[in-house]
Amino acid sequence: MLKECLMATSLFHDSLTVRTQSHDYPIIITEDATSKDSSMAKQVAPYIKGCQVLIVTNDTVAPLYLQALEDELAEQFTVKVCVLPDGEQYKNQTSIDQIYDALMAEHFNRDVTLIALGGGVVGDMTGFAAASFMRGVNFIQIPTTLLSQVDSSVGGKTGINHAQGKNMIGAFWQPQMVLADMSTLKTLPARELSAGVAEIIKYALIMDEAFLTWLEENLTAMMALDLAVLGEAVKRCCQYKADVVAQDERESGVRALLNFGHTFGHVIETHQGYGNWLHGEAVAAGMMQAAKLSQKIGWLTLDEVERIERVLMLGNLPTKPPAIDVQTALDLMGHDKKVKHGQIRLILLKSIGSAVVTNDFDNDLLLEVLSQHSA
Ligand code: NAD
Ligand code: GLY
């Protein structure tokens, strides 16, 4: 009985280490960093090297979490803030210039630490600004969306979009630490929570069939914001990603598998206009397209494809792409970073939990998949 009470009151708190060529860094996953006793500021302060801090956030996240972080850090550091407009459509050079302007206005130098407070858009841009300002300064990730907690804040991919392609300009630049506070998910819109679930399902599909079974049992609790279950899912995903990044930081091999569903998904995002389909939604529909192609090749069974569809639907995610002309889709795929020597390479599933990068498929099968859509 006593044990049950203790378990009921103890909050989720865990950490793991990401090992990279430049340095190792912790991911702290916690449930209460919005409280005074174990605040965000207390958790990140030990990883701030100099005395200058620029917090980069956006106009949605700022009213929710900025003040407490800024006020508490200001007791120890010179703290300035750069609030960007919210949205994937602002993940561009203009926003990067705004960050540089804030740094230059304060005469900040190589001692500065940038803190990304927000989702993947803020994290990717802050990381890119940190990678390029004065040839590279420290930065910290405080991801506040589920997607950024399980994926974008970890592993050092930073960057911005180009009008003709997503994430086309960027750098590999690792943070000093990542603080994922599950309690920030309480304010996240349900659609954004689902978008994060898509990336979680991705890890199961490419790496671990047993994790898919775990998700089938726990997704309902996750969608109902059970923070301990969410914390466990975030920890597992960060561990998968940390293992991959440790083997292949620069994506010359196994890291490409993390892009499962993304080549199809990028077509949807670019075609629909940045911000209209959420990244995670596009990845969900893209994973179904990749699964269907895997089935047509003879790797996945129909049962497996239907299992994938069911779990995506449990996460309230789209399982079909919008109507996109096949030639347009092919052209957009041509801009993908995974095209090599003019050949489209895709991440496909040999079975659930086992993915490969391949260009060894009949183009007609790809065309068949691209011609199936929701409308
Ligand atoms: P996002 O950053 O646009 O955040 C989604 C929305 O939620 C925004 O409106 C944001 O302001 C809001 N928000 C954030 N935290 C909130 C909170 N706690 N409460 C209420 N609202 C909150 O989107 P995202 O899904 O976090 O990230 C998508 C981006 O991440 C894309 O640009 C994608 O390309 C990138 N990405 C990068 C990597 C990588 O490895 N670097 C991996 C995956 C995705
Ligand atoms: N999101 C894919 C990667 O980080 O490699």
Give a description of the structure:
With 375 residues, the protein is an alpha/beta fold. It has helices at 2-9, 40-44, 62-74, 93-105, 120-132, 146-152, 190-207, 209-223, 227-247, 262-272, 279-297, 302-314, 326-334, 363-370; strands at residues 13-19, 24-30, 52-58, 78-84, 113-118, 138-143, 157-162, 165-172, 178-181, 346-351, 354-358. Strand 10 and strand 11 (354-358) form a beta hairpin. Helix 6 (146-152) packs parallel to helix 7, helix 6 (146-152) packs parallel to helix 9 and helix 11 (279-297) crosses helix 14 (363-370). Mean pLDDT is 93; it is low at 1-8. Residues 58, 60-61, 64, 86, 88, 91, 118-122, 124, 144-145, 147-148, 151-152, 155, 157, 167, 184, 187-188, 192, 195, 279-280 line the site of nicotinamide-adenine-dinucleotide (NAD).
Topology:
Blueprint: H1 2-9, E1 13-19, E2 24-30, H2 40-44, E3 52-58, H3 62-74, E4 78-84, H4 93-105, E5 113-118, H5 120-132, E6 138-143, H6 146-152, E7 157-162, E8 165-172, E9 178-181, H7 190-207, H8 209-223, H9 227-247, H10 262-272, H11 279-297, H12 302-314, H13 326-334, E10 346-351, E11 354-358, H14 363-370
Parallel strand pairs: 2-9, 3-4, 3-5, 5-6
Antiparallel strand pairs: 1-2, 7-8, 10-11
The protein binds nicotinamide-adenine-dinucleotide and glycine.
Q: How far is the first residue's CA from the last residue's CA? A: 55 Å
Number of helices: 14
Helix content: 40-55%
Numbering strands along the chain, what is their spatial order in the largest sheet?
A: 4-3-5-6
Identify every distinct bound molecule in the structure, by name, code or SMILES: nicotinamide-adenine-dinucleotide, glycine
Largest sheet entry: 4 strands, parallel
User: What is the N-to-C order of secondary-structure elements (H for helix, E for strand)?
Assistant: HEEHEHEHEHEHEEEHHHHHHHEEH
Structural class computed from helices and strand pairing? alpha/beta
Please give the number of β-strands: 11
Principal-axis shape: globular
Radius of gyration: 20 Å
**Share of residues in strands:** 15-25%
Poorly predicted runs are: 1-8
Summarize model confidence as the mean pLDDT.
93
